[in-house]
Amino acid sequence: MALDGAVPNLPEVPGIPGLRDFTVIGRGAFAVVYRARQEALDRDVAVKVSTVDVGPSAAERAAGSRRFVHESVALGRLSGHPHVLAVHATGTLDDGRPYLVLDYALRGTLHDHILRYGPLPWHQAARMGIQLAGALESAHRRGVLHRDVKPQNVLLSDTGAPLLADFGSALADALPDALPDALSNTDDGEGDAPVEPVRVVGSVPYCAPEVLDGSPATALSDVYSLAATIFFLVAGVPPFVAAPDETLAGLYLRIARDLPPVAPSSPDGLVRLLDAALAKDPAHRPGGALSFAIGLTDVLSAARRSAADLVVVPRPAAVRALSAGAGLEGRTGARRAVTPDPNAETADLSELAARWRGVRLPAARDRRSFSS
After folding, report:
1. Superfamily of the domain at 1-104
2. 107-172+201-312+347-372 maps to which CATH number?
3. Where is the Protein kinase domain (predicted)?
4. Cα-only R_g, the chain
5. Nearest to 289, CA basis, from 84, 152, 88
6. Is 144 helix (H, G, I), strand (E, B) or coil?
7. Residue 48 annotated in ligand binding
8. What are the tens digits of pLDDT across the range 122-165?
């Protein structure tokens, strides 16, 4: 894992039973990430430690604490998804700071990979998009909005598979009532502390226009950010990037007004799909992350390219049904006589394909060169 920025007054190396040889590999406004050695399992792990107690103001400490709560809950709800960074443990240090023990991704971020080796072929980017869309759809079904999908927050596993990571900006609904004191206490001693300052959450080049305009993030704003990430994979830059000497206001205006450039070396189907997912109006985007994944699958199929596996976890109600002995039908499994429950049939995508076919795609347009 890697976090941007710097932390003043870096806390001491944490003492966590079973882990040793802590080395800082990332620093951010709310956490420090270490690589550590877990001798019992002969592996390296990443340890993300909250720095909420070193923030200069009570409001920032409260915001940092809340971020850590949401990240812990989000990762816990998504445990086991093959394209979400795995969390192994959480706890509290002796000084009260919470921490997470996570998989250590030796190959780094997708952003760094592209900068080092150049853009991906469009079909490889589309397959990664399917895998990440499955992770996002799973998050949305579990009541989690990521709110900061970007190449810097996608890690590469040892096998090269993408792993959605850094849920520090995530928003999780229905937080559990019983949380560790270090996670739940955001009191600044002067009454109720603000949960988080009202501000834009996300990274501007990958942030949906409505979020930049101050509207709350939604599942469709996560879809926009995923589409911008896929664009980066095939172009080497996001759809909208600040020009030399351009003000932030100018960049905001272009994101809100201009059509995205055409993704280079991409078939018309992918260009149109990205145009739809990057629409200014959320109502004109694919109806969700899973619909977007089905669109990517269709593009690959039309080009006679193989698609990636699409993995979506069941909703909590479906999990309860499985524990009671009910089964989920596989995509190629035998049909059951009972009409399937759309909330439980996570492996059979037929009902969701109908959703995708109803999405309005932009009309074919003249291909503009990427440099324009």
Report:
1. Phosphorylase Kinase; domain 1 (3.30.200.20)
2. 1.10.510.10
3. 19-300
4. 21
5. 84
6. strand
7. yes
8. 999 999 999 999 999 999 999 899 999 999 999 999 999 999 99
